[in-house]
Every structure is written in structure tokens, then in C-alpha cells.
């Protein structure tokens, strides 16, 4: 019976490692419809994601011999030592655009270096046939892992806070292309660093292989759900009281400035155009610009995508040998799928 229990521990670890390998392959080759020339836009550092998933390979000694003490020490230390870094890094990478990712890239690299250095002695100890560490050395390494885990929890908390801020930005119709930020997925996944904490720490503290095996069975899989199909509605503040003729004059002026920037200057061809860029070109505040978009043009994203759809038709007529995908990208859409979604929405 005891042998059977260890057998299932090894199987659980093997399933976890294979799952990580599969996702490393997915991240390496799957483009999820983003423009081919800008593969890194939504997931800015694909190589980093692949590396993060592949780190689970260090747990192979536990798969091969779950009764080995060195392999078990590595296995149980891996999750408090690496899980919070793992979550924080992937949250930044999944939900940050190129500009946002660059803001945090150095922080992520430092966190990765600290995590790797903390785990390296235990990895070498488990992989070396006769072990490398003395019992006192193992105790010291465990203390280092605990300190690293506490620092990683802070790091993951910062990632959660930052993604929360990005979620607020995306909620106020700031994006012309919904694919620029996976809002729906972010709402479900930004709390990931704390979801498994009730399993992780009890398993580590009690030295329980059963609890750690259970952790592997409930480990959430990082899957990217369908991108937000539409932009969420926002609540507009009431306009300040003003004479009707002045309000109409203001509306006309803002509408003219919007059309000048978007239509005449063809700003809609920027696939990652944001509302804030339009506001910067107008003479009035964001509140008034949003209201004009809603009242006069039917909304920021709908108006911009309407211009893109019209351009798409002209482009196909002028370039009959071009593919639909090329036409969609030339028209300011991030992909042919984004074009199809916008067209369906505007029917």
C-alpha cells in the first residue's frame, strides 16, 4: 500500500511536468492571431514564458523516485520557492503590452535571478546521485527558500496591483482594438497568485506529500480565453450646465477635431490606437470627447473600426491579389479575426 502511494505521487508530478512542457511548446509556436510582424505585442516576451514553463523539468528526480529524500526536499520547496515568481512573471507577460512590459522587465529579471539562485543548491542536491548538501546545508537552503518565497509574494502582489490598474484603463473604452488587452481573462486570472496558497503552505509546513500531490491536481492551467468581444459600457458624468448653443458649438468643434485626427490623418490605421491619443488632439477634456464619441459617432471603438472596415474594402479593391489577412492588418486590425469580430458587431 505504501509503495502504491509513492507511485501515485510520482504520477502526479509527471502530469504536472508534462503539462508545463505542453504549454512551453504552445507559447513557443502559437501566435493567437496577432499580426505576424508584431508577434510580441500581447505577450511581449515569449522566450521568457517558455523558460518559465520549462523550469518544472528540474522536478524529474521526484518523478523517477518519489521516495528519495533529496528529490522530495526539492519538490516541496519548488512551489513556495518558485510559484509566486511564476505567477507574477506570467501575469506581467500575459497582460502587459510592449510598453507596459518594458516598465517591469528589469524587475522581472531580478526576481528570476533571485529565485534561480535560491533554488539552485536544492536542484543540484536532488540531481546529484549521492546528494551534495549536509543536513545543516539543507536547513540553510530551506530558510533561503522561505525568504525568497516571501519576497516573491510581494512581487506577485505588485503584479496583481499593476494588472488591476490596467484593467481599470481597459474598462473605460480606451482601446480601439479589444485584443490589445484581454480584459475578460484578466478579471478571472489576476488573483491567481493567492488561489493555491491554502494548499501550498500547508503541504510545505506539514511536509505532506499527499497535500502536495493534491496541489498538482488542482493547479490551474494558464489558458488564454476568448478576447473581450466588446468594450464595456461606462457611466458618464452629467455635463456641466451650459447654454444649448454653446454646448452644440463645443460638440461640433470636438467632432471636427476627432474627424481631422482619425479620418483625415488616418490615425485609425494604427492597430493599437487608444482613446487617450484622440483626447490629446482635442481641445476639451476626456469627458467631453467620450460623450461626443457616444452621441455623434456611436462610440470610440465602433467609429474607429467602422473606418477600418471601409478601408479594408477599398484596400481589397485596390489590391485584388492580397489576402484577407494582409488587408485586415493594413486596415488597422490586429488580425483577420479582429476584423471579423468588428464587422459582426457593426452589422
Task: Kindly describe this structure.
It is a single chain. The chain is an all-alpha fold and 347 residues long. The relative contact order is 0.10.
Task: Report a brief summary of the structure.
This protein is mostly helical and 347 residues long.
Overview features:
single chain, 347 residues, mainly alpha
Question: Tally of extended strands?
Answer: 0
Distance between the termini: 64 Å
Largest sheet: none
* Residue windows where pLDDT falls under 50 for at least 5 positions: 31-42, 220-242
**What is the chain-wise order of helices and strands?**
HHHHHHHHHHHHHHHH
Q: Determine the strand fraction and express it as a percent band.
A: under 5%
Please write out the topology.
Layout: H1 2-29, H2 46-54, H3 60-64, H4 69-95, H5 98-127, H6 135-171, H7 183-189, H8 192-195, H9 197-206, H10 209-218, H11 244-264, H12 275-281, H13 286-297, H14 300-318, H15 324-330, H16 336-345
